[in-house]
Specification:
The protein is mainly α. About 70% of the residues lie in helices and about 0% in strands. It has six helices and no strands. The chain is globular and about 40 Å long. It starts with 6 loop residues before the first helix and ends with a helix. About 10% of the residues have low confidence.
Length: about 150
């Protein structure tokens, strides 16, 4: 958890195999969810919190989140090319809500953390992180689609 995060910090986290970062301030409910998810890792009797998307049936809601995320990712790319931080912030906000709607708290919180990066460090810092975040979006949508098709 950090109140400030720089590109150098991100590199050190990756070298240390730290895959998740919480940016303060954050609501206590978010901290509680993260702590519960981490406490549950390694237990075989409880389902993995990262697998909640497998419980989702294909619904118009799931389909809309998938389509919206694809549109918002394209909007972020366009906004980065235009140097439009406001459009990046709006797209990240929309993505966060969509992922929260389908119970993907990790991606929803990642969107919120990246909004903080844009606000505090600017588009140049965000642009360095964008390719990895795009992959996270694709992976999240792939899991959502796979989980929806299983039911």
């Amino acid at each position: 958890m950090s109140a400030h995060s720089t590109l150098e910090d991100a590199g050190r986290r990756l070298e240390a195999s730290i895959s998740k970062m919480l940016i303060k301030p954050l609501p206590l409910a978010v901290l509680g969810r993260v702590l519960r998810a981490q406490a549950g890792r390694g237990r075989t009797s409880e389902p993995d919190s990262d697998k909640t998307t497998a419980e989702l049936p294909i619904t118009p809601q799931v389909c809309e989140v998938m389509h919206s995320a694809t549109r918002e990712a394209a909007a972020i790319t366009d906004a980065l090319h235009a140097g439009n931080a406001g459009a990046v912030l709006n797209a990240l906000h929309s993505l966060s809500g969509g992922f929260a709607l389908v119970r993907n708290a990790a991606l929803a919180e990642l969107c919120n953390g990246l909004r903080q990066v844009v606000r505090s460090e600017g588009l140049d810092s965000f642009q360095v992180l964008w390719p990895a975040f795009q992959q996270e979006i694709e992976d999240g949508l792939g899991a959502l689609k796979a989980g929806s098709q299983e039911t």
